[in-house]
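hey so i finally got around to running the thing on that chain from the lab meeting. sorry it took forever, my laptop kept dying and i had to restart like 3 times. anyway pasting the input first so we r on the same page abt which one it is
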Amino acid sequence: MAPSRAKATTLPLLLAMIFGVLLCILAAPAQASSSSQPSPSADVDLICHTSNPDECYPRIFQPTDEFQTVREDQELPNGLHVRLNIWTGEKEAKINVPDEVDPSLEGLPVDQAVLVVDPQEPDAPPVPRGAPKYETVGKIKEPKPEYEAEPFFQAMKMLKSGDIDGGEVFDNALEGMEDLSHDIYYGLKITEDPAVLKGLFCLMADQGAPSADGITPRDQQAAAILAGALQNNPTALEKVINEWSKIMEFKCPQNDKPLSEGFYSSFMPSNTVTGDDAKQPAAKAKAKAGAINGLIKSDSIRAEFLKSAGMRNLLEVLVPEGKEWAAAQRKVGQLVLDTFLDEDMGAKLGQWPSTPRSTDVQCSTVEGQTNEGCWDYHVERIMKANKRDSGHWSKDLHDRLALARKNYKAPSGHQEL
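ok and heres what got predicted. didnt touch it at all, straight out
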């Protein structure tokens, strides 16, 4: 080949190679940039809750180097750095960088994978040394206006005034109050008003309160309201404790007797009922056991309850047979476990039982069946009736009660028969 022809062939090849190298160099930064901050392409599967395309977002979360909020219906790829914002409840994620240390967390104590941070209001001044302990319970915001609370406040007004003979109007108002009593805000509203509390306790103690067909009896409704207000609401219970002596001294309009004389009376109807006729008495007993369960979280009220033969009245609920009583009996069983026998559930052991076990002969008689020593007899009877259910509450109560009896020591001078 002639030298001139070889030079002409080599030059275009050399230019092509130089152009290719330059193209690779220019493409590398662009690729690095796109990998750190990807943006959805036309092929990305989107989620659209409205017809506005600007409000759509990728079904699979697109991470970047910064934390972004993860929507509830988005899917997360593996290997991301995910965290939960405890103030907003939102999940946030970004590209994971191994061994990355967040400078904002420097010096803060960490317990395993959980960051321990004392909450503090934005721009709040530091807490002075020796200041009283801050109680988070009770710092409750009023619910949003959309809550339908008119019946609740109508019931409050009628209970305060004593005008409780309003028939269906009052019954409907009580129903509205029960619906909201489980809310911490409304539970406090109920318990911070002594007149309302007295009205509710009088209703709960009045087994003869009138009730129309299809309407929840007022004593049951009042018990359910008190149970809801006290459930997981220690501030509400504190309000009741502060008024307790005055509540028990209060004379209810229906009989002009102090509440203390009727509050610890029987939960059961005076006549024996069975079958469908037992449904309403059983529902009443369950509601009243729920209210008692909330009240005896207080050490002082629990001591008074035990002294006033409260456990005998609870045992009456275990005596009837029939599926209509199952829910009420379970409520009573859980109350006894959580309050007196199961330390893992907060029970203070050694307070009850305070008597030895009675014999089966004693407990099988009408006169002796509700003696405190007969709890074992009735629990064992219920356990045998539900032997196919390995997780039935009666089995746990039977075993723990047997252990408590074993550890029971009779007071000095007491001679067991």
